[in-house]
């Protein structure tokens, strides 16, 4: 064998040895990475479930009047912060005021009738006693005594009727006072005004929507997890959340409160008909309600409908 051929064989052998070493190193790196990821998954990642299909929500209070009338004044605008009990809308109170005055006049009239009935009843009682004392001497006839007894009985009935009239008039006065107070519409909760639909001069009926109040201080998150992610999720577990509004620099902390009674598709306007022949399994999502920390909400306010990324720590399995 010539020197050239000997050199070629040596080079090929060296290349083969070098490739084996590279493959061995690559295999070692892959194995180490796989072991490292497996260890990370077992010790950490498997204890968390996450979704970006989550949105902020709140129990929005819809403000409606309890009495109808013409809107006299609107004290608030959209985006305005209000406190519970703060005046929002004023309805013209002319009719309510007249009704209250009429009810109070009826009450006074009923009180005067009762006073007259009581006076007549006292006189009838005195007259009856006088005749009863004279009946044995024959100074009073049986007919006169009977008339006195009838007058006394009639007086009792008149007093009872007058008292009933007073009770009815008093009830009308109380109702009129309530109707009068209802011409001033106040905020039922703290929050931010939204969806204001009422204007000055508008004629509204009882129960008509005027505006909404969003209690942003009591915000929660509805996180829609895939059904396969919920095996280890329990009420009381801790969660961390971030939103695009503030980015990852602001992390909200919350607690799992509970699970919805059904998936989104179950409550859809047209529910899926899985009993039909052409059925394809689709992974469902179940809303999980997460309570937010009020202190963090106050520092970084949120609005209804903002998207969130939610991660739940499932290591706490105490609440089964």
Describe the structure.
The chain is an alpha+beta fold. Among the domains are: 48-60 and 215-313, Beta Barrel (Elongation Factor Tu (Ef-tu), domain 3), CATH 2.40.30.170; 93-182. It is built from four helices and 14 strands. Strand 11 (238-243) and strand 12 (247-259) form a beta hairpin. Helix 2 packs antiparallel against helix 3 (142-181). The protein is elongated.
Strand-and-helix sequence, N→C?
A: HEEEEEHHEEEEEEEEHE
Apparent shape: elongated
CATH superfamily of one domain, please?
Efflux pump adaptor protein, beta barrel domain
Average pLDDT, to the nearest integer? 83
Task: Output the number of helix runs.
Answer: 4
Strand content: 25-35%
Class of secondary structure makeup = alpha+beta
| Top CATH class of one domain | Mainly Beta
Biggest sheet strand line-up: 1-10-13-12-11-14
- What profile does the largest beta sheet have? 6 strands, antiparallel, barrel
* Annotated CATH topology of one domain: Elongation Factor Tu (Ef-tu), domain 3
Provide the helix percentage: 40-55%
Question: In angstroms, what is the radius of gyration?
Answer: 41 Å
Number of strands: 14
Summary of the model, kept short:
With 320 residues, the chain is an alpha+beta fold. It is 40% helix and 25% strand. The longest helix is centred in the first third of the chain and has 41 residues.
């Amino acid at each position: 064998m010539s020197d050239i051929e000997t050199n070629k064989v040596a080079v090929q052998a060296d290349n083969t040895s070098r490739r084996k070493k590279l493959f061995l190193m690559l295999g070692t790196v892959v194995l180490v990475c796989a072991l490292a990821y497996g260890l990370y998954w077992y010790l950490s990642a498997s204890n968390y479930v996450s979704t970006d299909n989550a949105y902020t929500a709140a129990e929005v209070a819809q403000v409606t009047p309890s009495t109808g009338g013409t809107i006299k004044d609107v004290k608030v605008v959209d985006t305005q912060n209000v406190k519970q009990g703060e005046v929002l809308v004023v309805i013209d109170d002319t009719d309510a005021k007249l009704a209250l005055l009429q009810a109070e006049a009826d009450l006074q009239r009923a009180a005067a009738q009762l006073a007259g009935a009581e006076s007549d009843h006292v006189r009838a009682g005195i007259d009856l006693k006088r005749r009863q004392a004279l009946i044995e001497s024959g100074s009073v006839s049986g007919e006169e005594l009977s008339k006195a007894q009838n007058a006394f009985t009639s007086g009792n009935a008149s007093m009872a009727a007058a008292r009933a009239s007073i009770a009815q008039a008093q009830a009308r006065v109380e109702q009129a006072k309530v109707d009068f107070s209802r011409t001033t519409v106040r905020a039922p909760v703290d929050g931010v005004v939204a969806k204001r639909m009422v204007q000055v001069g508008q004629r509204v009926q009882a129960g008509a929507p005027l505006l909404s109040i969003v209690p942003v201080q009591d915000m929660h998150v509805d996180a829609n997890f895939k059904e396969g992610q919920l095996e280890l999720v329990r009420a009381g577990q801790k969660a961390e959340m971030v939103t695009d509004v503030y980015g990852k620099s602001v992390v909200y902390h919350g607690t799992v409160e509970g699970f919805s009674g059904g998936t989104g598709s179950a409550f859809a306007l047209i529910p899926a008909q899985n009993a039909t022949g052409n059925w394809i399994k689709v992974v469902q999502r179940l809303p999980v309600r997460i309570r937010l920390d009020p202190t963090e909400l106050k520092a970084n306010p949120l609005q209804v409908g903002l998207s969130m990324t939610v991660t739940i720590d499932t290591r706490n399995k105490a609440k089964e």
